[in-house]
Design a protein that fits this description.
Elements: E1 2-8, H1 9-12, E2 26-32, E3 40-44, E4 68-74, E5 77-87, E6 90-104, E7 109-112, E8 116-122, E9 128-132, H2 141-148, E10 154-159, E11 162-167, E12 178-181
Parallel strand pairs: 6-12
Antiparallel strand pairs: 1-2, 2-3, 3-9, 4-7, 4-9, 5-6, 5-8, 10-11
């Protein structure tokens, strides 16, 4: 297993609710060459930034038509999923067709097709550890629309010890999020 990448709090600031939060400590680590079935392991810190839960940067798959599979190993996590909306056969990044907050339990697996942008949030008090089978890598354009719009469609925050969401004002006509379990989510 090899350390593939890290994201520090400063590197995350473009996609955070509070853009002024800063720091050099890693928010998450990605390791590669994990096993024959799983290519990557991501470990997300349990510390929050302001009221927002720690999360991954978020991305789409812009250069591949492959399905990505995730498995939650340990921790308490929410996978924010937002489905691309096409207008006249063109992707309109600031418009989202559907948004789901998928709560996974340790051992749960989920498949994600290319229409869905996604980002993990750690809503627990221990590290969130996930596995995925993505071998194609992520070119900068996978992250560019999320960064351009200042994050995913909603920010997942801790309000009175409850996970709730705040809309990202850079998106247009956001659909109301659906809260689902891994077994209830269908592409």
């Amino acid at each position: 297993m090899l350390l593939k990448s890290t994201r520090t709090l400063s590197e995350m600031s473009p996609v955070l609710l509070d853009k002024n939060v800063s720091g050099s400590s890693p928010v998450y680590w990605v390791f590669s060459n994990v096993s024959k079935k799983w290519e990557n392991m991501t470990v997300i810190s349990p510390r929050s930034f302001g009221e927002e839960f720690p999360k991954t940067f978020g991305h789409y798959h812009t250069s591949s038509n492959s399905i990505e599979r995730y498995k939650l190993l340990c921790g308490q996590g929410i996978l924010l999923m937002q489905k691309r909306k096409f207008v006249d056969d063109d992707w309109s990044p600031e418009n989202i067709e559907r948004i789901c907050f998928v709560e996974l339990m340790p051992g749960d697996e989920i498949e994600i097709s290319v229409e869905w942008g996604h980002s993990w949030s750690n809503i627990g008090t221990e590290p969130l550890i996930t596995l995925d089978d993505w071998k194609d890598g992520h070119p900068p354009q996978d992250y560019s629309q999320i960064e351009k719009l200042g994050g995913m469609g909603y920010f997942l925050v801790n309000r009175n010890e409850n996970a709730t969401f705040i809309p990202n004002k850079n998106y247009k006509n956001l659909p109301t999020p659906e809260w689902l379990s891994a077994s209830e989510f269908h592409n």
